Amino acid sequence: MITAEGGTELVHQEWVMRSKGSPLGPWELGEKDSINPMIFNGDHPEVRQTGHMDLVEGVDGRWWAVFLAVRPVHDESGNTQLSQLGRETFLAPVEWHDDWPVVNGRRPITINMDIPGLLRTCETFREEITFAPGIDLAKQGWYRMRTPLKTDYTLSEGTLTLHGSPYSITAAEAPTMFLRKQLSFHGSWTVEIEASPQFRHQAGIAIWWSKYSYASVAIRGTKEGRELVYKFPNHENDDFEVRVT
């Protein structure tokens, strides 16, 4: 039995126990510093918050650990910042010692690990997103904020049409918003929007980390027509807004 320990922040780690009797125990805890923790990177500069592990056996009989971790971001002064990529999936080799699983020879998890027989590739990721009636947006990589009470979009050839709701991007509900996960620290993206919002309604795009941390550009309806609005909440959660009519 393997368990994620220490919360999900800097001391996140994975521990292992075993039972020779039954799934109900009694349980034997793997010895500390030789078996446990299975993975724990502490304040490693490349990979942190390792945990939530699964063990899998490959077709060639080799064993692997699949787990979540975070690549920290550092500012110009070397201070650690929250990662905009969040948790990512990592892979490490497993060997069995006296019927205990040992991950990566108990060495720290790093970005580049020399594993015999495992190819490492480096490629530039590019994706052009298209829409069509009947496609499953979730299988295409789209995320929703919580679960909407009713369908708030329609699909046509080449177009995703959103039907606005009363919830804003900062609401603790399910705003009419579709999200895609950022896959690298640096990149560029473009989107075409056609919107004619009514008075005080708005539609736009956002770089979204949470309802407290995001940047957005939106078209807002006014009494005279419409205006372009840029929003950048600061650290005190007060909105800094620029309007272009």
Quick summary of this structure?
With 245 residues, the protein is mainly beta.
Task: Give a structural overview.
The protein has a 4-stranded antiparallel β-sheet with strand order 4-5-8-9, with no helix packed on it. A 4-stranded antiparallel β-sheet has the order 14-15-16-17, with no helix packed on it. It is mainly beta. It is elongated, with a radius of gyration of 23 Å. It has strands at residues 2-5, 13-18, 28-29, 48-57, 63-70, 73-74, 80-81, 88-97, 100-103, 142-144, 153-156, 159-162, 178-180, 202-210, 213-221, 226-233, 239-244. It has 2 domains: 2-106, no CATH class; 142-244, no CATH class.
What characteristics describe this protein?
245 residues, mainly beta, 4-stranded antiparallel beta sheet, 0% helix
* Rg computed from alpha carbons, rounded to a whole number of angstroms: 23 Å
Unreliable spans are: none
Count every beta strand, where a strand is a DSSP E run of 2 or more residues.
17
- Quickly give the structural class: mainly beta
Order of helices and strands: EEEEEEEEEEEEEEEEE
Strand content: 35-45%
Main sheet record: 4 strands, antiparallel
Large-scale geometry: elongated
Number of domains: 2
Average residue pLDDT: 88
Q: Kindly, what is the distance between the CA atoms of the first and last residues, rounded to a whole number of angstroms?
A: 60 Å
Helix content: under 10%
How many helices? 0
- Give the spatial strand order of the biggest sheet: 4-5-8-9
